[in-house]
Every structure is written in structure tokens, then in C-alpha cells.
Amino acid sequence: MKLGQALGVGTDEVVAFVGAGGKTAALYRLADELWREG
């Protein structure tokens, strides 16, 4: 399962990640997935 699917995030949504550790990697992964979807 992709991160975007797990979070229920589509290409027209705004999200925020908070907490300690892993935010940058998660955001880059999500951005890459959504970019590839178009």
C-alpha cells in the first residue's frame, strides 16, 4: 500500500506532518507518489 492511500490523501489536498523523526522522508515519499499519479 502506498503512503497516500494509507492516509487517504489525494492530489488536491493539503497535509501537515508533526512529531519527532521521519517527517521529511514521509513528505518526500508522499510528494513523489502524488507527482507520479499526476
Provide the succession of SSEs: HH
Q: How far apart are the termini?
A: 18 Å
**What structural class is derived from the secondary structure elements?**
mainly alpha
In DSSP terms, counting alpha (H) and pi (I) runs of 4 or more, how many helices? 2
Main beta sheet: none
Uncertain stretches:
none
Helix content: 40-55%
Give the integer mean of the pLDDT values. 91
Instruction: Please give the radius of gyration in angstroms.
Output: 10 Å
User: What is the approximate shape?
Assistant: globular
Oligomer: single chain
Whole-number tally of structural domains = 1
Number of strands: 0
Strand content: under 5%
Summary of the model, kept short:
The chain has 38 residues and is mostly helical.
Core attributes:
38 residues, mainly alpha, 2 helices
Task: Annotate the secondary structure layout.
Blueprint: H1 3-7, H2 23-37
Describe what this molecule looks like in 3D.
The longest helix has 15 residues, at 23-37. The chain is mainly alpha-helical and 38 residues long. 53% of the residues lie in helices and 0% in strands. The chain has 2 helices and no strands. The two termini are 18 Å apart.
